[in-house]
Please model this.
Amino acid sequence: MRNVEPNHTPSSYSKRAWSPPARSSWNNPSASEKSAILRKALDRLTQLPGVVAAAETSDYPPHTWGWTTVVVQGQTPPKNRNTSSILCSEGYFHTVNRPLLKGRLFTQGDIESAGHVVVVNQTFARNRFGEANPVGSQVRFSDYETLKDWPHEPYFEIIGVVADAQNNGLQESTNPEIYLPATLTSAFGFNLMVRTTVDLPTIIQEIRFTFADLDPNIAVAESGTIATLLEQDYFARPRFLLATLSTFATIALLLVAAGIFSVISYNVALQTREIGIRMALGAQPTQVLHLVLKKGARLVLAGIAIGLFSSYFLTRLIASEVWGVSVTDLLTFATVAFLALFVGLLSCLLPARRASQVDPMVALRCE
Model:
């Protein structure tokens, strides 16, 4: 469970950014003070042209840092923390486009009254309730009950189930997750998420103006997009690795093509007399062309077979760098094999054409 100072990070879903906590003189607000200022900010933001949805949230995709213990009434209490948790306002699910599967979502009344209601994701429902409907079940949060301003009544009712989304990074499977009203406690920092069709600089400027009007002591931290976050934290390393491996793969492919070309050219040179005899006896140029290509194809296919066999076992060495696709993805293997076959046959084509154009008399005379 992460505990940071209050901060204000405006962001737009599908254009969201990250930043460190923004310090201001507005330190340690109560839950009601935080709720009041954010309610005014959200009301203003949702009225701006181009703003589709806006919400307060303690975390944002694709990570949820609030790891806590959730005890389901009537079930054996877990021995460790088992669930990701987010404190959010009623607009959160619309902002991140999370469809409702069962029950209902938060209403503005639930948030303003700090209602004892929660929403869970599909993984939580499946892990803790199996095929049963979790709506109406009671849960409590033993970790949060140590907070000074946590409600004295410990149990909360599950009112809805939403679809899963990435909350443990892009590489790991989805964690069980539970959503609580953001007005329950002031112990956590918060962020603003905005889904908008307006250019990011425009909406960020509007957010800054909004907070400046509401309270000049509130500092707005560095802002950006979710796309920027993904580029910096998740895609930079895989793209560098992809570029590096692609460069080496291209060099290797060129070396293979040069090697095949050299071997077939040398083989044709050694068989010049044989080719001349065949053509003198009536062999057609197309038959000679097919003969050389056939020999080259055997070499290429043998190399592809050895390569595929070796790759199947060597992929385990890079398994940690590959995500979103199996290291033994059949389509990838097939594409690479086809590319190698195409380049190999292309490398054989020039020597084969030269062989098909051999003058029988010249070949025999040279011999």
